[in-house]
Design goal:
The chain has a five-stranded mixed sheet with strand order 1-2-3-4-5, with no helix packed on it. By secondary structure, it is of the alpha/beta class. The chain is globular and about 50 Å long. It has five helices and five strands.
Length: 138
């Protein structure tokens, strides 16, 4: 089996593609999806330019610079995705919302609070798109 790792330049965020090949069979694993639409576009361009399709998506953690572009990638390639590996976002959604319901101004600086809110929106987008295409429990 051969392994190639492609570190995509998506600015101050993460997007890594691991290419696993055995004979004529290839599996592409996307690790993290950058930070939003502009990073997702760079990832989509890579897949289109190389004619690769993501078979597995891994989200290392739920910060915006890792999860932000994943919903767009899933929307585009849902029929090729066999699994989404993450911190079970459909369970974390409620936890994050409860954190926000506390008076977050008392313990979070404004910048961190805004990042948490943006990450929550990205998480909700990921959950919706995974459910839409039946990927939630894969």
């Amino acid at each position: 089996m051969s392994i190639k790792i492609h570190m995509l330049n998506v600015g101050s965020a993460d997007a890594i593609i691991v290419e696993l090949a055995k004979g004529n069979e290839k599996l592409f694993v996307l690790v993290d999806g950058g930070k939003g639409k502009e990073h997702a576009e760079k990832i989509l361009k890579y897949f289109k330019d190389t004619n690769a399709k993501p078979g597995i998506i891994i989200c290392t953690h739920l910060d915006r610079d890792h999860i932000g572009g994943l919903a767009k990638i899933i929307e585009e390639y849902h029929s090729y995705i066999k699994a989404i590996w993450t911190h079970i976002p459909w369970n974390h959604n409620k936890d994050i919302k409860s954190q926000l319901s506390i008076d977050s101004r008392a313990f979070l600086k404004s910048e961190r609070r805004e990042l948490l809110i943006a990450s929550l929106q990205d998480l909700e987008d990921l959950v919706k798109i995974a459910e839409k295409y039946g990927l939630k429990d894969r």
